Amino acid sequence: MSCSFSKNEKGSASDTTAKEDMNITKQEVSEESFNKELTYPGSKISFMVSTKGDSLIIQPSGLSVSNETLYHDITGYTIVNAEIGDLNVDSYPEVFIYLTSDGSGSYGKLIGYSVNNGKSVSQVYLPEISENNEVNKGYMGHDEMAIVENTFCQRFPVYKEGDSNANPTGGTRQIQYKLVDGESGRIL
């Protein structure tokens, strides 16, 4: 299995990389805000993902127990995209929001939630690349992230010793994650 990525231009008014099997009803991107509504195909479950200042706001709907609004401080980050999919193949969606740090490194960050049997959501944990000695050698940010089929993919350039931030020479490393149940939540 391989992951296919498309570049999104910040400031575009529509999402041309959205998968055709997703029902995306609204997206607006500008320098100041991000607004995207994601509806999982064949269900009434949806998520409105937006920003207001340095706050990420995720408003679920269609859940039977809790549709509580979720807030995250995203100071120092910019939202690149948001996607919906069923990574653990339980017939309920996950929503993933991709962010990059401001500055030259553009380090990737994921904020994700998984639906619990159509009732509520719980946050998904993605370990930091820096915590994983198997894959962090040569890592200096510039992440790309995407849901591909039932897999979460993260890809980034590899820097060799002496490379400048603008000129990686070590190729590209791609990591594919599966969503699994952990001790206190779901983990990639």
UniProtKB/TrEMBL annotation:
InterPro entries membership = PliI, PliI_sf
Annotated Basic and acidic residues bias? 7-23
Q: Report the domain of life of the source organism.
A: Bacteria
Region: Disordered; residue ranges are: 1-30
Q: What is this protein called?
A: VCBS repeat-containing protein
Q: To which species is this protein native?
A: Phocaeicola coprocola
The root-end lineage is: Bacteria, Pseudomonadati, Bacteroidota, Bacteroidia, Bacteroidales
